[in-house]
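Team,

Forwarding the record for the chain on the shared tracking sheet. I've put the sequence and predicted structure together so nobody has to dig through attachments.
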Amino acid sequence: MAVLNNFKETLGNIFKKPATIDYPIKPRPVPERSRGHVAIDVPACIFCGLCQKKCPTHAITVVKPEVTWSINRMRCIQCGACVEVCPKKCLELANAQTLPSSKPVIDTFKGAPPEQKPKEITNA
């Protein structure tokens, strides 16, 4: 009886569409309210480091003297804590997935150096 049930199931699957998709060739549609991944608007960032302090997995690294912001994508859990604490609101959870990888992916962004105030020139 079990053989007959298996044959019936196999025969039924021959005429159905595949249950899986060819990812990443055909990307899966991302749901509207998906968290996605952390994205940064580098020109708006002041490199204060609050996102680094708030990150529970220590995935974000901010180096203020070098004006760099980096994120370890394999360590990030998309919790949104960094987005909530950002004073300039330059971080967001983008509605897109990162590409699969077997190696750690660290994205580094370099900002513009802070503007130097012109020194006062006094005639003596």
